[in-house]
Structure formats: C-alpha cells, structure tokens
Amino acid sequence: MRIITGKYKGRHFDIPRSFKARPTTDFAKENIFNVINGYVDMEGAQALDLFAGTGSISLELLSRGCAPVVSVEMDRDHASFIRECMTKLDTKDNILIRGDVFRFIKSCKQQYDLIFADPPYALPTLATIPQLILSKGMLRPGGLLVFEHGKHNDFSDVPGFIEHRAYGSVNFSLFRATSGGALVSSAPAE
Length: 190
Fold this sequence. Notes:
Order of helices and strands: HEHEHEHEHEEEE
CATH superfamily: Vaccinia Virus protein VP39
Strand content: 25-35%
CATH architecture: 3-Layer(aba) Sandwich
Distance between the termini: 31 Å
Radius of gyration: 15 Å
CATH class: Alpha Beta
Number of helices: 5
Number of domains: 1
C-alpha cells in the first residue's frame, strides 16, 4: 500500500497477508482523489474515514493536508495497523476510533468537510449508509460524501447524489450538502 501524493508521497506500508480488508486500488484512489479535488479544498479540511480498513484512505487524506482525519475501524488488528502507520509518519492529525461505524454515526455530533465511506461490499446494510450519513447532518454545508461500493449498487435516487464514477470494478457515488443544510444535486462547474 502506498501514498500517492502530498507530503507523504511515495511512502509504502506492507499490509499483513492475514488481513481481510481490500484496500482501494491505487488506480481508483488516484482517480477519485482527482475528482474530490474539484469539490473540496483538502488543505485543513476535517475528514472522516468510515470503515477505515487498512488506513489507506486516511493516510492519503492526511498526506493531502486534511486535518484532523478521524478513522473509524472496528477490527482490532486493522486498527492496530492504522495506529502503527500513523506512528511511522509521526503525525498527530489522526484520531483513530476502534468501534462500530453504525454506533459512531448514531452518536456523532461533529460535522466534516469530507466523509469517505468504504464498507465491505457484502455488508447487508450497505445500501442504507449514504442516506444514514446524510440525514444525520454529518456533512458541513458544501461538504462531500464519497461512498465506495460494488457495481450492482445505484444511489442516483438518494437525495444529495451528484455523480457516480467507476474505475475498473471500483465504484464511487458522491453526495453533497448545501449551505442551508439542504442537500444539493449538481456537479461543480468545470
């Protein structure tokens, strides 16, 4: 696993073979971050990485200037691996929460500029996650939710949906909140 760009560009971390998590491919990660740049100024943005897995997205967010980055991961070994990666980078800008994402969402009072959610594709409640996050008001006005999912999911009817991107077998749906707290469904001007 490597960090693609930013202040930690090129840093590599070896993922233990025993891990069940599937990190987002470098190809998909590079492309979706190029899209995110069109929506969010990452420098100083407060970011949330749900279902953090190996920490690949959290590391990329930190490298690109997001601070703080909150990483939520339930698996003990994965959370420990994320902590080790952050220690190797000597960063204090990561807040690691080892716990259930759904409990975190239910109790969350914080708003974020950018939320990245990458649940296991086979999760039975996967289809409920975007609406759950958006209805909870976890996005700041103008904030962006990036939701990674399999090719069989379609979120275009969820309020706040702005676009879908596919890179190989990796799919992303993007959602946005507006300044009035209502959701918006338009892409940025190109």
